[in-house]
UniProtKB/TrEMBL annotation:
EC number: 3.6.1.26
UniProt protein name: CDP-diacylglycerol pyrophosphatase
Subcellular location: Cell membrane
Record flagged with keyword Signal: yes
Gene expressing this chain: cdh
Enzymatic class: hydrolase
GO annotation (BP), single: CDP-diacylglycerol catabolic process
Location (main, coarse): membrane
Annotated metabolic or biological route of this protein: Lipid metabolism; Phospholipid metabolism; CDP-diacylglycerol degradation; phosphatidate from CDP-diacylglycerol: step 1/1
GO MF, any single term: CDP-diacylglycerol diphosphatase activity
Organism classification: Bacteria, Pseudomonadati, Pseudomonadota, Betaproteobacteria, Burkholderiales
Keyword Transmembrane: yes
UniProt organism field: Paraburkholderia sediminicola
Length: 264
């Protein structure tokens, strides 16, 4: 005759904790799935997440809600992208459509690139290790190669083959464009010693793309010129749909799988 073991009945407090953990996990999964569906059908999804969820949460509770961080003073939010293991996005808390917006060139415009570069630490937190600055990159797509109509700068790891190719520009004279082919497409590269004021990548690219229509065709990527950007400077990488064999997106130079973090 089989022996019946006494059934263990969870204590009420333990049961409540179990239910709360399960509910929280379901809420996170539901939110991520909802955001994925929202982004697929709504070109204003990023703006709605920041403006309707993250900013109100920061204002009301001091916590960023769905975002990783909200800086109300500097007017940007950082959001973990649903694509990739480490990709984050810098998104203005102001309504800014994209690279073509005159707002990015206004005298009082925030230094989005500088803030995005500081925010690379969230990529490193995701992969649980520090990375050399020339293995980290920032990128913005042209108006015609994006899915969202709210400015967002991608922050993620670089493809190692691209970092290796860009190494030949590590000692370029600052402030001068050099043309090169990366991943089969033409880009121009400029080494700079800062990412703000006159060296703001938006301002650099706008010098010979004088209006919104010309800027709308541009893509920009920024990465460290060497292992330490503070010492080595940065590389501003630019192409456009108006360039022979050019591109309106440099996002392919980033590696959303962040394989460099797995290298020994």
């Amino acid at each position: 005759m089989p022996i019946r073991m006494p059934m263990t009945v969870p204590k009420p407090a333990h049961l409540r904790q179990t239910i709360l953990r399960a509910t929280a996990a379901l809420a996170v999964a539901f939110t991520a799935a909802s955001c994925a569906r929202l982004a697929a059908v709504d070109s204003n999804a990023l703006w709605k997440i920041v403006d309707l969820r993250c900013v109100p949460s920061q204002q009301a509770t001091g916590t960023p809600g769905q975002c990783t961080v909200v800086d109300l003073d500097k007017r940007y939010a950082i959001l973990k992208d649903i694509v990739g293991r480490s990709q984050h996005l810098l998104i203005p808390t102001d309504r800014v459509t994209g690279i073509e917006s005159p707002f990015v060139l206004a005298p009082n415009a925030p230094d989005y690139w500088d803030d995005a570069w500081v925010s690379r630490l969230y990529v490193e937190k995701s992969v649980k290790r520090s990375l050399p600055d020339n293995q980290l990159g920032l990128e913005i797509n042209s108006q015609f190669r994006r899915t969202q109509n709210q400015l967002h700068i991608h922050i993620d790891c670089m493809h190692s083959k691209v970092s290796d190719a860009l190494a030949r520009h590590a000692k370029d004279t600052p402030g001068e464009w050099r043309w090169d082919t990366l991943d089969g497409q033409r880009y121009r590269i400029m080494r700079v010693t800062s990412l703000d004021q006159a060296s703001n990548p938006f301002r650099i690219v706008a010098r010979d793309n004088k209006d919104a229509a010309a800027m709308a065709m541009q893509t920009i990527l920024v990465t460290g010129a060497g292992p330490s950007a503070e010492k080595d400077g940065w590389l501003v990488v630019n192409s456009g749909l108006d360039v022979d064999n050019g591109s309106g997106s440099a996002e392919g130079l980033l590696d959303h799988a962040c394989r460099v973090a797995d290298d020994k």
